[in-house]
Amino acid sequence: MRILYFAWVREAVGMPEEIIDPPPEAVTVGALIDWLATTSEGHARAFADRDRLRAAVDQAFVGLDASVRGAREIAIFPPVTGG
Amino acid sequence: MRILYFAWVREAVGMPEEIIDPPPEAVTVGALIDWLATTSEGHARAFADRDRLRAAVDQAFVGLDASVRGAREIAIFPPVTGG
Amino acid sequence: MIRVIVSEVQIDVATEMAMIEGSAGAVATFTGLVRADDGVSVLDLEHYPGATEAALVRLANVATSRWSLCAATIVHRVGPMAPGERIVFVGASAAHRGAALEACTYLIDRLKTDAPFWKRETRGMASNWVEPRDSDDAAAARWTPINPPLEGEVAVASATDGGVSRSR
Amino acid sequence: MIRVIVSEVQIDVATEMAMIEGSAGAVATFTGLVRADDGVSVLDLEHYPGATEAALVRLANVATSRWSLCAATIVHRVGPMAPGERIVFVGASAAHRGAALEACTYLIDRLKTDAPFWKRETRGMASNWVEPRDSDDAAAARWTPINPPLEGEVAVASATDGGVSRSR
C-alpha cells in the first residue's frame, strides 16, 4: 500500500511517500493512522491532532472512518488551502 | 432650452437635438413632451407611447413628472439597453 | 482607483486586467460580447456623451465605497461592432474574493439600467433597437437600497477616446 | 469546453480570456493573486499531482452542467511565486451574464475546499503553512446540494505543464 503525505504532514513525517504493509486491524484510514503513528517520532508528531488531518483513498477525499480495504494509494494531509 | 433625442426617439423625431422656447405651461418633462408632440408629425409619432419614454434633466435620470424649471438640457429617449 | 472608458476602440482585456490587478489579492471581471450565434451581423451602440461617463464614474465610486475596492474599471464600447467583439468589460479588485465578485456583479447589473446606452441589432437587411429586458430591471433592483454616492465623488468624464482615471 | 491547467508557468490571462470567449455572450472571471501588501516575499503552492487535476476537471464539469456553460476554465499555478503574481484564474462563459457570474463564483468557492492544494507563505526568514479559513468552508457550503458529476465525466488529467482540454 502506497502512502502519500503533503504539506506540514509531509514535513513532520520526513518523507513524501512510503510503501507500507499495514497490520490486518488497520481497516479504516483512522486505524491506519493509529498504526502509522507508532512507526516513528515524526509520524507520531504529524498525527498528534486528528482534527487537523484530512485523507484521500485512491485520490478521492474521504473521512477518517473510510475503509482502506483494497486501496492502492492513501494520502494524508492538512485541510486544503488553494485558490 | 436644449432638447436631445436618442435611439428610436431620435429617428422618429428626425433630429438628434433642437433648441426650443417652450410655452410657460410646460413646467414638467411630461408637459414639455405634450407640447413637443404638437410641433411635427415626427414628434407626435416619437411621443405616442409615454410608457416607452425616459428622460434626463441636465444629465440626471428623472421621471416624466420632474420639473424642467431652470433646466438647460433635457434628453428624451427609450429605456436604456447597454452592457 | 476608478477607471472609466467609453470609446469606439476595441477593448483590450490584457491591459485592463493588468491595470486593475495592482496590489490586490482578488480580481473579478465580467465581459459582455456580441454573440456570434444569434444571427446578428452588426451591433450598434449609441450613448449620451457626457451623461454616460458621469453615470459610470458614479457607479464605480458607489461600488468602491460599498465594497472597499482597491480598483474599479468600466470600459464600454460604442459605435458599430461585429459578432465576437467585446461590448463591455467591468472589473473589481479587492483584498478578498467575496468583495471583488459581488462588486463585479453589482457593476454590470446596475450598468444595464443606470447608464444611457442603446443597442441596435442588424440581422440580414433588418435593423431594430433592442428592447429592455425585465430581468435586467430585476437584477438591478436586488442591489437596492444602495449607499448614495458620497458628496463630491461624481466626476463628469470626457467623452473622448481616452478615459477617466481618478486616484482615490 | 473544459480547460484545466496546473502548472509552474505564469498564468497568461489574455490567452485564457481569448480561449474562453468563443461564441459566448458573457464571460465572468476571477483571478487570485499573491498580495503585494501583506509582507509575504514568497508563496509556495504544493499540490497532489493527478488528484488535483481530476478534482478541477470534475468541478468544471459540474459547473458546466449546472449552468449550461459554453466553457469553463481553471488554471492554477503551483511552485514558488512572488507578490503580485497570479495564483489562480477561473472563468465561465455562457449565453447570459447570470449563469457566467454565478458559475464563476461557484468555481472559485469550491476550488478552495475541493482541490488538494496547500499554500506556504514566507515572511522574512519565517515560513508557515497557511491555515484554512472558516469563511471558505461557509462559501463552499452555500452551493450544496450540488448536482452530482455525471457518469463518465470525470477525467484524470496529466500533471504536466500542459493542460487538459476536453470538448463536450
Please characterize this protein's 3D structure:
The complex is a heterotetramer, with two copies of chain A (83 residues) and two copies of chain C (168 residues). Chain A is an alpha+beta fold and 83 residues long. Helix content of chain A is 25%, strand content 23%. Chain A is built from three helices and five strands, in the order E-H-E-H-H-E-E-E. Chain A has helices spanning 7-13, 29-36, 41-46, and strands spanning 2-5, 17-19, 54-57, 60-62, 73-77. Chain A has a five-stranded mixed beta sheet. In chain C, strands 2-6-4-1-9 form a five-stranded mixed beta sheet, with helices on both faces. A four-stranded antiparallel beta sheet of chain C has the order 5-3-7-8, with no helix packed on it. In chain C, helix 2 (51-67) packs antiparallel against helix 3 (97-114) and helix 3 (97-114) packs across helix 4. Chain C has helices at 13-21, 51-67, 97-114, 134-141; strands spanning 2-7, 26-33, 42-47, 71-77, 79-81, 86-94, 117-123, 126-129, 163-166. Chain C is built from four helices and nine strands; from the N terminus they run βαββαβββαββαβ. In chain C, strand 7 and strand 8 (126-129) form a beta hairpin. Chains in contact: A-D, B-C, C-D.
Uncertain residue segments of chain A: none
Biggest sheet record of chain C: 5 strands, mixed
In the CATH scheme, the class of chain A would be Alpha Beta
Q: Regarding quaternary structure, how should these chains be classified?
A: heterotetramer
Terminal CA distance of chain C reads 6 Å
Kindly report the spatial arrangement of strands forming the biggest sheet of chain A.
Answer: 2-1-5-3-4
> Would you identify the regions of chain C where 5 or more consecutive residues have pLDDT less than 50?
147-168
- Range of strand content of chain A: 15-25%
Report on the biggest sheet of chain A. 5 strands, mixed
Q: Per the principal axes of the C-alpha atoms, what is the gross shape of chain A?
A: globular
Mean of residue pLDDT values of chain C = 88
* Coarse structural class of chain A: alpha+beta
Superfamily (CATH H level) name of chain A: Beta-grasp domain
Order of helices and strands of chain C: EHEEHEEEHEEHE
Number of strands of chain A: 5
Number of helices of chain C: 4
Q: Supply the number of helical segments of chain A.
A: 3
| Helix residue percentage of chain A | 25-40%
Going across the major beta sheet of chain C, what is the strand order? 2-6-4-1-9
Gyration radius from CA atoms of chain A, angstroms: 12 Å
What's the CATH topology label of chain A? Ubiquitin-like (UB roll)
